[in-house]
Amino acid sequence: MGTVININGRFFDRNTAKISVFDRGFLFGDSIFEVVRTYNKYRIFGLDLHLDRLYQSAKYISLNLKSRKFIEGIIRKTIVRGDNPESYVRLIITRGIGREIGMNPKYATIPNYIVIVKEFTPPPESIENRCIEAAIASVKRNYKESLNPLIKSGNYLNNVLAHIDAMKKGGVEAVMINPEGYVAEGTTFNVFIVKRGVYYTPPLSAGILDGITRKAIIRILKENRIRYEERNIKPSELLSADEVFFTSTLREIQPVIRINGKKIGNGRAGEYTRGLLELFKNNVGKFLS
């Protein structure tokens, strides 16, 4: 059990895995990636949805990928090799090593396929132990016209700077605001609020990544005829919400109890967040493969 790295079909441990310093992913962030997790050792959450997004990202950056069968194969083989009770899996595809250091993507012709698998500790069973404090970052989300947020790229400096800013303000996580002044997303998660029994989340047009857990939750809400709405959310609405929670593949559903030092609701995981987490747990099997 432990950490295993698969580079172009060859296995390495964390001490022997190496990528060239001339790889465009290292030099320019010219790469795409996905992060998945397992349930019950080998079953992967939302793999088809993650691969759909991966191929969409590749299309946006004009990167030709190998087949889905190949990519799924290297993911599953690396999980088996890691032999962890549960696994964190990070798939990275770079444009490859360039024959010159320069912007022209045609300098590189052979992408590198990297899978990192390590042991994953699932979120606590008790929702109270999942609660977190956040801050609204002063660092704005990139203009979507400059860097399409639907691309899950290796260029995460915007998110890193937002996280640094939030930590300076006393937050553990950062909520990012888009250039229009509305709530966008977190550094590695989507944002939901609850107001008067209705769930709200920013639309994709707010400049956010099309989160896989966000997509799963919207499907669960629809199937159970629970009221929700995708609409722009003002920062003031975030602070005055009855409940706030974050969603992602790794954190599932995470209640937020303070933002900018202000208590959200009663300062504990709210009734609607609790109910949705139970629904998610009861339905997660639909998304495993």
What does this structure look like?
The chain is of the alpha+beta class. The chain folds into 2 domains: 116 residues, Aminotransferase class 4, branched-chain amino acid transferase, N-terminal domain (D-amino Acid Aminotransferase, Chain A, domain 1); 161 residues, Alpha-Beta Barrel (D-amino Acid Aminotransferase, Chain A, domain 2). The chain has 7 helices and 15 strands. Strands 7, 8, 9, 10, 11, 12, 13, 14 and 15 form a 9-stranded mixed beta sheet that branches. Strands 2-1-6-5-3-4 form a 6-stranded antiparallel beta sheet. Strand 3 and strand 4 form a beta hairpin. The protein is globular and about 55 Å long. The mean pLDDT is 97.
Short description:
By secondary structure, this protein is an alpha+beta fold. The chain has 7 helices and 15 strands. The strands form 2 sheets. Strands 7, 8, 9, 10, 11, 12, 13, 14 and 15 form a 9-stranded mixed β-sheet that branches. Strands 2-1-6-5-3-4 form a 6-stranded antiparallel β-sheet.
